[in-house]
Structure formats: C-alpha cells, structure tokens
Amino acid sequence: MHKRHNSSHIIPFILGGVVLYFISGIVDELRVYQGASIAVYVVAISSIILLTGYSGQVSLGNGALMAVGAYAAAVSHITWHFPIVLSFFVAVLAAALGGALLGAAAARLTGPYLAGTTLALAIGLPSLANQFSILGGEQGLLFDVGFPPLSLGESFTQYKWFFWIAALATLIMMWLLQNILRSRYGRTWRAGRGNEVAAQLSGINTGRSKILAFTLSAGLAGLAGAMLSMTIGTVSPSAFPLALSFSLLTGAVLSGITTLGGVMIGAVTLVAIPEVADVLAHRLGSSESVTTNLPGLMVSALLIVTVLFVPNGPVEQHRARAAKKLAQK
Amino acid sequence: MKAMNRRKLITASAVLAIVGLAATAIPAQAAEVGVSSTEIKLGMTLPMTGTASLGYNKIPGAAKAYFDYLNANGGINGRKVTLVVKDDRYVPTEAVSKTNELILKDKVMALMAPLGTANVKAVASSVNPARRGVPVLFVNTGFSGFADTKKYPTTYTVLPSYVMEAKIMGQYIKENFAGKKIGLLYQDDDFGTDALAGFKTAGVDFAVKVAYASGSQGAAAAAGWITKFKAAEADVVILFGVSSATSAMLGTAAQLKYAPQWMLGSVGGDATTIKLTGVPAGVLYNAIGFSPVPATTDMKDEYVKLFSDIYAKAFPGSAFDLNVLLGMNTAFMTAQALKAAGQNPTRKSLMAAIDSKGATFANSALVPAGYSATSHVGLTGYWVGKYSPTGDLAPVGGTYVAYTTDSGAGAVVKSTYKRPAMPAKGLPN
Fold it and tell me: CA B246: distance to chain centroid?
C-alpha cells in the first residue's frame, strides 16, 4: 500500500486537458464560453471546499477575495503592463495576502462570528473600488487579455482563447490542490475540522493550519476572480455582488462540500441552471415573471433537496454507499 | 480502492459535463442571422429582477406591446418582429453571458436597448458585438462615450447624453436661479463624470457637491446627504442620480421636512417609479424636471394617446409612465429602422438605414435626433417642466419649451424643432 505514491498523478490531468482541447474544437462558441465559465466556477468552488470542507471554516466572503484577485490582475496588466500569465500570478498572490490577513483574524473566530465577518467583507470590499480612481470606480476597468495569437488561425475565436487559458489554469490549479489535500497539510486540516482539541493534542498548531487554509483558499479565489474578469472583459464592483458569494456556496454544497471530487457538479449546475430554466419556461410558455424567477427557484429547490437527501454531496454519498457495499461483501 | 473510486467519479463527472456541453447542435443559418421569411428576431438584456430593476422592468413589456401591435398590423414587410428578453440583474457578468446567449444561441439579428453603462461596456469588451457585426440599437444609457463610432462602431445611442442634460440644466439655472446657492447630488462614475463635464461647460458654480457610490444609496445615506446640503445652505438641489437615489433623497427629505427647490435629472425623475417607493406626491410638487419625450399624462399628444392605448390593452391596470413611453418609442424607432433597411434587411443595411435616415425617423420626442453617416448620437435635448401637485411632470403653462445642444462645447439653444406628424396608426411608413 505504501508503495503507491500518495501524490495525485499528473497523467489524468494531462489527458483531461487533451480531451478539453479537442472538445473546444468541435462545440460552438456559446459552449466554449460556458466552458470558460465552468472553469471559473470550478476554481472558485474548490476554494470554498478547501476552506469549509477540509479546514472547517465558514466563509461567505469569497466574492470579495475574487474581486481582490480580479483588480490585482487588471491593475498589474493595465498600469504596469504585466504579461497576462504574470498578472494571473499577481491575482493569486494579492488575494492570498488578503486571505492571510483575513485568516489571522478568522483563526480567532468560529461559526456564526466568522460567517458574519466574511459576509461584511463580501458586502463592503467590492464597493471600496469606488474610493480609488486607479480602480475605475463603479464602471471599473477594462481587462483585455488580447486577441489569440495569429498562429492559431483566423477562425480561432476570442472565447476559445479564454477557454484555453481558463482550462489550463484550472487544470494546473486542481492538480496542485489535489496534491496539497493529500499531503500532510490536508490531513492536519481534516484533523482540525474533525476535533480541534484532539488535533491540538496530537501536536497540530490548529491556528497556523487554519490561516494557511485561508491563505490558499483566498489565492484560489483570486485566480477565479482574474479568470472571471478575463471572460467578461472588465473588472467592476458590480461583477462581485453578494449574490456571487452565495451562489458559489450553493455550488459548493451541491458539489459536496467535503470532497473535491464533485466540484464539476456544482460548477456545471451553476452554468446550466439558467439555460435549463429558460428551456423549461419556453416549453411551459410561461409569463415573463416566471421566466425571470425560475432560475433562482430551481437553485433553491436543488439546494434543499441536496441538503435533505445527500448532505455531503452526491459524490461522497455514492462513495459511502460503495464502501458500505464492499464491507457487506 | 478508494483512490480508484474517486478517480472513476472524477472521470465520470468530467464526461458528464462534456456530454452536456456537446449536446446542443448548431442551428442552420438563414440569409441573415435573425431574419427568416416570417420573423425578425431582436434581443434585449436588462435588470428584470433585483433592486436595480425598479421601473426598468416595464420596458420589455412596453416594447413587446408595441411590436405585437405592429405584428397585428402586418409587421415589417410581412415579417413579425419578436423580442427575446434576458434578465441580467444589473450584473456585468450576467449581461455578458445573456448577450452571448442572445447572439450565439437565440441568433438575434440585433441587440436592442441594453441597459446600464457598466453592462454595455462589459458587453462591448467581451462579447464585442462590433467585431461580430451585430448592431446595438438605442442603448438605454445616456453615457456620451457610446456615441464614439471608433470605439463602438455598431452602437447607436438614443437618450440625450448626460452631458447634454447637465448643460441644459446649467442654462436653466443661469436663466432662473442666478445668485442662488446650488447643490448637486451625483453618482460617482461615468454617469457623474458626464454630468460634471456638462455643468463645467455650462459654467455652473456649486456651493456643494455630494457624490454617492452606486449601490450605496438608501435612507441612511440620504440623511447624510441632507446634512451636507443643509450645511451649505443650498437653495436649489439637483438630484442627478438613479431612481433609487432620487427616491431615497425625497423620501428622507419629506420625513426631515427638508424642502429646497428640487431639480431632478431624467434618469431618476420618473414620477411613477418615485411614488412607488412611498414618496408622497406632494414632495415632488414644483420640482423641476427634464424629459425628451412628451409628458406621460398628456393625452392630447397623439403618440402618448396611441402608446398608452396599446399599453393599456396589453397590461390593463399598469401605469403608463416614462419607462413605458421610452420603451415603446424605442420599439417604434427600431421598427422604422427595420423598415428602412429594405425588403430583406441585413445587419449592414439596418445600420446603413439609421445612418442615412435615422434623423428623420418619426418618434414622440420633442427634440431632434442627431444620426448621420458620421454620428450615432440620438436625441439631442430636453424640455423643461415642473411636477404637478399629483407628482406628474408637465410643461409650465401647458407649452413645451425644449432646449437642444451637443455633448461637446456647443451652445444650449431653444429648440425650433417641429415634430413631424405621427405616421398613420403609428406604424412605420
């Protein structure tokens, strides 16, 4: 058993990348755009799963940390003319720094107090952008990663370019994250989440461990923020409303908050719901008010069903059932 | 074993996602996207839900009501005009995704009246309708920058710009409130920047300027604004903000018994919307207001009469307000553009039609439109009126006095524009 390396192999991720590459060539542009959105959500939801599912801290402020990353990326790209890859790194670092500061405060808080603090951040932080003219106020900044290189051909669309960048960043991030979660850090987080006192007794510095989780989670959120603003071409406070933080949390719950394995489920659901709602409303020939409110209703209903029947998420549920079956044999 | 299962599951969920993505086939294309032998399809994004939707969510219904009327009367050369509406909740991310759906999935011929400066900008940058050749007709924002044909070659404005409005307000102040202390409430973004530029050109000196960040407006904030206006002893207070800011200000002022001479910008000046938030009509009484189109209560006006009849049939019991009138007016102008675009309209011929004939399109506005081969500027001025005791904007003494100007350094002049008679039955001719 110990022969097998405990790290996650890179091969599935490379294979995944190759598959995505071919898919991006055959689907139409709207799907490619949605693929990029899914990539954004995958990273953003992973950030919540890492924080809440693994280290046991609640954060309602992911949207705010995404905003930090997005602004850092845009400012470094526009003001200092950083190449796009570098500005993505800046996004991760800036958000991680913010996360470390927040984490230092958060390590002293638990449960509703932590939720309240991060909620305040989600509400307040994005509108801070209005106070500094370098951040472009309410209208925000244009964040233009540029046209795809000409060598890719004339028919290579902008969205395909976004998708490639987003998918690559996501695959790399997910691979890193998978390995971190399987490492000593992942175990200390889970130990701290399970029973903080027991974890402390076994020599884990739970305070430090929590801050580290917060920092990493914030870094991921920052990357997601930079990717989001790349796909919409701008960074502005209104792109990071409180509703974003909530829908990400919803996505995390749908994915199964204690495991990274189902993160695709939440991400795809968040992107697919409006479209499914649209089709449904059309079939039913319903009025405008039904059409506009249906997506919210569907998400809420899904959330309730998930919490009622598969509280740990469909993936964890399936795994538990499989394990049970195995034990019965 | 556990690791195996997990990997299986990851693979399974990835495959599922991929299948989902690939599931939709690409529909066949007609001669021009969005135009078939029986239908012309247009798309609109705007906030239909959420706080920013107040009042604006009546626009799609109003536009659809006009198009239904048009379709019942033969449509455009036998083609029905349909409008696909998507809710963007006033979030740029949503505006981009919904516009993508409109262009790439619903395959609309043109975008019509997308709302909000930040959203239109995000869409221009990410979706880039210009690069796709998609016309963006009559954006629902007064930001002067959208008339820049180099930056936004396929975008047409319709509302007079915020710069024009501020210049006209400045002129009115000079003529009527010389020597008085003037206060200004404005939104701290492009909306406000445009306004400040206009006031500067008009040479207005403010005793006090209060900026608010979009989204921060509310009763508590309004109490703070009032303190500042009171401290500066402002005689005239201009509210150059969105409806929610105007409403918060007037509502709080009523409670605090603060009553300077109000002057309301057109963006936040729709009486029905303000009254809906619980502001008593009396507070609006004698406030000065601005509008490019006739008073919504002016049933002697042929457009107001026809549009309100059409709207009342489509939405019995719903108030006919400024948002409705502007929505129907935009739909009417769009119909004329489509008609002028020829037997088989294309995106190119549609834009060419506005360039060549847009300035002569019949519409309810009391000021001229500025479209030409080199200009995508829409309406170019406002008439000035006062709110009645019931809180409705009406011309003083019953006659409309309109001013016209540009978004640059041009002078503000009394408009001599004579609105042409409405085409028969309000249909494009």
Answer: 17
